[in-house]
Amino acid sequence: MQDPKRSEDTPAPRRRRGGGRAGAAARRGHAAIEQAPWRLPVNPDRPVEPLDAEGVQAIHDGAMRILEEVGVAFLHPEAVAILRRAGCETEGEVVRMDRAMVMEALAQCPAQWDITPRNPDRRITVGGRHILFGNVSSPPNYWDMELGRKQPGTRAQCRTLLKLTQYFECIHFTGGYPVEPVDLHPSVRHLDVLYDKLTLTDKVTHAYSLGAERIDDAMEMVRIASGVSDEAFESGPKMYTNINSTSPLKHDYPMLDGWMRLAARNQGLVVTPFTLAGAMAPVTMAGAVAQSLAEALSAVVLAQAIRPGACVAIGTFTSNVDMKTGAPAFGTPEYMRATQMTGQLARFYGLPMRASGVCAANVPDGQAMWETSNSLWSAVQAGANMVYHAAGWLEGGLIASPEKFVMDCELLGQIQRYMEPALWATTPEDIALDAVREVGHEGHFFGTGHTQARYATAFYQPFLSDWTNHEAWEAAGGVWTAERANRVWKEIVASFEAPPMDAAVREELEAFVSRRKAEGGAPTDF
Amino acid sequence: MQDPKRSEDTPAPRRRRGGGRAGAAARRGHAAIEQAPWRLPVNPDRPVEPLDAEGVQAIHDGAMRILEEVGVAFLHPEAVAILRRAGCETEGEVVRMDRAMVMEALAQCPAQWDITPRNPDRRITVGGRHILFGNVSSPPNYWDMELGRKQPGTRAQCRTLLKLTQYFECIHFTGGYPVEPVDLHPSVRHLDVLYDKLTLTDKVTHAYSLGAERIDDAMEMVRIASGVSDEAFESGPKMYTNINSTSPLKHDYPMLDGWMRLAARNQGLVVTPFTLAGAMAPVTMAGAVAQSLAEALSAVVLAQAIRPGACVAIGTFTSNVDMKTGAPAFGTPEYMRATQMTGQLARFYGLPMRASGVCAANVPDGQAMWETSNSLWSAVQAGANMVYHAAGWLEGGLIASPEKFVMDCELLGQIQRYMEPALWATTPEDIALDAVREVGHEGHFFGTGHTQARYATAFYQPFLSDWTNHEAWEAAGGVWTAERANRVWKEIVASFEAPPMDAAVREELEAFVSRRKAEGGAPTDF
């Protein structure tokens, strides 16, 4: 799997479209690292399910009673009007919906749907047993080993992280800005970053729901990059948004506005309440999950009211706070169980699910990796379909780091290898009785034909892990993981080549950006 | 759970025996860290099972055919004689056993058994849904942050690690020497270290199967420390050993000798083949697991021939090598699946199972933690009952590190918290509809009665993780995890108080050690 020659010899699907960067680099023989080829991993494990059937019913009932009795505030008059017409009871901004109506709307949701980016070979399937990973999204700050301190993000840093997003085959979609480029004026920031995303990557693109102009610009730029008509654009998702409710029990105007515009044009819709137990949600996991579901499902009902069959997924971002300080914590045991519980309810509702790769750590050290491991494995255990922030996240999402990105990608590569059925195959050739007989009670298996025929692809091949002994490691400079990751990302960025794009398409994108900038971009008073 | 006052107010079982160190320290108000009290965790998760029923049968059949057709070499004439009398076919050292006989022996094994150390409140149960964790065992070398380099272990370092073993409530049993004290002569090393173990800890003790004298000395010292008669000592396990086969398909003399002596005296028996796929076992996971099972089960048959109903468990230590260098790797995807597959077969055979917490990393950094996380979570997923090396292991077991020990204990604390049913409770109080109604669409949950009544015990309370924001972290010195762990272990060791032991028992132990040293200790020509 890790042999770059394989993509040489076997025409990968994307090669028909000019080849991804890894394939191209391998052909020229200077790939920065060896990695397994692009694929859509399928999670073979039965989910971990802490709740029994009564527990699932109890949380479902809790979510429904919240929707029926407390309601959710929709800070968008049109949304309120749509929901009222759909049969909800409204009282100012507060919308209450009964469970029969909610379940009817949920029955309209597709259990699985695709998003097709400008390179159709990078199409992803959201739902079923698929599990897909995206890069870190939206940190306002950047940190790397040489800088050695946190600083507000720049466009250059954002581009660096987009290159890593494109480079790593274990990353299947882009999230929001991998770091917020605060050196770009907010009125035009979305234009420049989306231009960078669409030219530096050919993977599925996200757009922020931050007002009408931004989301309309994003849809138009994605349409241009894909080279398709409006009709083709709306024939199925070409991009997606992710909105967060303002917990407790509130959806803000800009988020709703983007959500509704994307629903109208048949794009991907992910709603992820950020419910910190003990702060914006009950201190108990069941309570926090029930509230999170109520918030998410209310947005799903809105989307279905706008477009029956709209492509939605619900996310979980339920964690706990440090009760001594109020600081948010991530990758905790409580976070893991909340993620698994949400997975059970997502299956109960027949909806695809989003989870995250997260940590509270401030630097890419041991704590960062046990917290991130906990969160990523809980996403696997929960049967999550999209894993946001899966590479590069630090400090509870306030920092993006390229070293952390590379470290996370090593873990993601292992998780994706873990899902390959070859690992637990039990044909007679796998049981290998002949090889055992051949080696007997002495000697070793290195030299057997059984080993020789398989060694090149038998095991996950790391690109960052150091498996040498301590003496060799010390002789090579005694470099800790984060420092090795620094070398890896710089090499990747130095040799990066953007995926191909037709010159005419690029010119059309550039012209669009120029025109919209000349028009003043988007309002910044949202 | 994390509130030390709780152990103040609620008499913990062990307090009746003079109290563990944590309880005692809490009473005096200077616990180095806050931690959850001692308990035997129960794993509530359904195991992850990559194999279907046919896969289980295929590996079982492979293991049986290895035992029937290839056989296992027993480098111990008495073992061969016992197995011949039990019905095995022998040819020199090679013993072949048919599956009917093997399954008959397995049917005699208890599915679950206890080990009772000198402090009966530290009794552990091996089997069922229990999952227990032990400290790192047997590294020849030591590394800590101040030393900054690898060096051969000493008795002082061994004692440091034993203090951590005793201190952390998430550690349930001691393994072998937490670091090999090479400053002690091999002839008397076992006497000094066992004296240290029995006086610095009151948890279950392991003894190496390294020849008759050592194992007999160990049994006698454990008997003395427990203050029981020979008859009481043999009434059920008071200690255990762990033997490794010499893969492929061989059991060495010293290991077998200790194994047989402990079987005869009804002590705990764990057999763990070290089968590196591609080196000492087939390159395929199914083949490596089948061979590992054949090696382990052959020792189980021997134990049952000596004492029907002997208390046995089988371990897994199947991992892969880096096929470029031959270096062993740990915590890989292949390691995780092999552990899960072995768990399935252990349940098929009705045997308790041992797994490990392992990594290939040379220092306690990011790689160390993702590899260790992978291995510990795979132990949980496999339904393992004993997790060896769960704290302190580096460099594929060649280094013990107190910083890594402390870091691992934070992860173990989280894993054990993860298993508490309170996390997924769904009573009406957990769903918290009243609190949701109270907070409504504004405000927060910090101040609600629902939160106030629960906040002290609602979440895992870390002792090492830093959840402060980057600015606060930087203001506090910008200390990375491994450095924080250094401070924690030094504080624990500085304030360590050994668990109580009757003066008469201690004198008897000292006298035994003195006498055996005067006699020359144990032979060193094994």
Automatic annotation (TrEMBL), chains A, B:
Gene Ontology MF terms: methyltransferase activity
Bias type Basic and acidic residues, positions: 1-12
InterPro entries to which the protein is assigned, alphabetical: MttB-like_sf (IPR038601), MTTB_MeTrfase (IPR010426)
BP-aspect Gene Ontology terms: methanogenesis; methylation
Top EC group: transferase
Family per record: Belongs to the trimethylamine methyltransferase family.
Protein name: Methyltransferase
Organism expressing this protein natively: Rhodosalinus sediminis
Top-level taxonomy: Bacteria, Pseudomonadati, Pseudomonadota, Alphaproteobacteria, Rhodobacterales
